[in-house]
Amino acid sequence: MERLPFKRPTEYYDEKIKQVDEKICELISKRKEISKDNPGYPPFEYIANWAEKFDLYEDFLKSLFGALMNEKRYKPLVKPEGFQKNLLALKYVEVENRLFSVHYIHQYSNASVVSFNADWDSTGEALEHSTRRHISYEMFIDEQHDCRMLNGSGGSGYFHYNFIVSPALPDDISGIELVFKELEHPLRDEGVGKSIVIRL
């Protein structure tokens, strides 16, 4: 999703630690390289040992490694520019009494915006139960296209999401497969159910 601009929290900086901070950045880059950009998350036992060894707070290290695991979430989001046309998709698939659909795709000169919907009969469901299974989705097309969730909304019986795809999809979208993976938590890459595949 689009992130709010980050404001520097203070004007103060101790220049004596600049080389240390640069070394931290170098080590983060090396960590990405060694792990092939798939580091996972250290066992809590390791974190507890490191906290004791280096006189740091465990919760601080847990948060730090959480941020390191999800670096791709900080990748700048492409902002669609130069609207060209709407492409009608009108495709749907039903999974476990839930209807997932892509009605249209907005075409821009530098990106596409895919509209994804989830609908189900929520009659008799408590609101908490009807919404908890739809926390977040990720979309995948292929290695050439970056897919990021722009925004989403919903309530009892429905959810709607917009995904930015860059570079833009071709005007002829026939045959393209859109894979939507339901996530347990928007900051993790752990799926909780089936992937929803919609073939255009």
Describe the structure.
The protein is of the alpha+beta class and 200 residues long. It is 23% helix and 36% strand. The protein is built from four helices and eight strands. It has helices spanning 18-34, 44-54, 58-69, 127-132; strands at 83-95, 98-108, 112-120, 136-140, 146-155, 158-166, 177-183, 191-199. A five-stranded antiparallel β-sheet has the order 1-2-3-6-5. The chain has a three-stranded antiparallel β-sheet with strand order 4-7-8, with no helix packed on it.
SSE arrangement, N to C? HHHEEEHEEEEE
- Rg result: 21 Å
What kind of assembly state do the chains in view correspond to? single chain
Question: What's the rounded overall pLDDT mean?
Answer: 87
Give a quick account of the main beta sheet: strands, pairing sense, barrel closure: 5 strands, antiparallel
Note the gap between the termini.
24 Å
| Shape estimate | globular
Order of neighbouring strands in the sheet with most strands: 1-2-3-6-5
Structural class: alpha+beta
Tell me how many strands there are: 8
Helix content: 10-25%
Give me a quick take on this structure.
The chain is built from 4 helices and 8 strands, in the order αααβββαβββββ. It has 200 residues and is α+β, with helices and mostly antiparallel strands.
